[in-house]
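JOB MANIFEST
job_type = single_chain_structure
chain_count = 1
residues = 283
[input]
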Amino acid sequence: MPPTNDSLEWSDSAGLRIADLETHPLTAVYRHDVHKLRGRSHDAAADEIAGIRVNETVPLHADRDAALLSRPEGRPEQTVDNHLSPARLSLLTGEPIATRLPRDTETIVDLIEPTDPAELHATWLTSTTPAAYNESVYYPYTSLKFHTLLAGALLDNYRAGHTFDELWLTATPTAPAEHTPEGALASEAVDPHRTILWAPPLALHVTATPGDRPATRLGAHPTRSFADVWTSLPYHPIDVDSERQWRLLDAQLRRIRSWSTALQFIEEFVTEHASSGGERRAI
């Protein structure tokens, strides 16, 4: 197991020395996939954007494990005809969220500029920009935003010496709050790196130390298991008994296996409901 301190001298099982990273691992994880905002592959991506180091390998297989939570292992295949694009497809509407790739560097810099890992986490947790793009063009309903947050949560737990089979999903109710990085940093409902969704009225966390919060294990190894894990939670922070829209959300989440797709669906559903005050059926 890796040590529990912040030493950058240990290495992962693939031989990557953490000292070889030019930035702190918990900074690098939020910058490792921004090339997807430009529609580029990892191999074709730039190493810097506006002087900020990006596209570094995430240690301890956290990126790989996060990917396995949302898409199948092996050679990818196109799953939606006539849509081989970085634009994410909405599970609510079936329509692409992004109309074009970001043309200005400033849009991307806003996501990667903070140097404090907790600020980077809060930035990704509250940003809408990466939510418009998928984590793989072959799986367009997946979400780059939530893939990155999952990778950050796994990396933080792995660096603390925990293995995947020791991790839990916890769900907690949250009060309405200013949905900004500053609001996330100030919120008691947000755990740095380990909160993977903050969409009042609920927050979801991946942690090895759930404490007295209702929790359920993620499983023995990373796989597309969101529906199973969600269903096995001993407590749900949404009121499915009194409000029909939450019953609709709960019913959909019991069917969605991809983690980043499910997390993005929750965020989009909550945002849509809050803005319209009505109900909208998922496709």
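[summary]
The radius of gyration is 18 Å.
The chain is about 30% helix and 10% strand.
exit_status = 0
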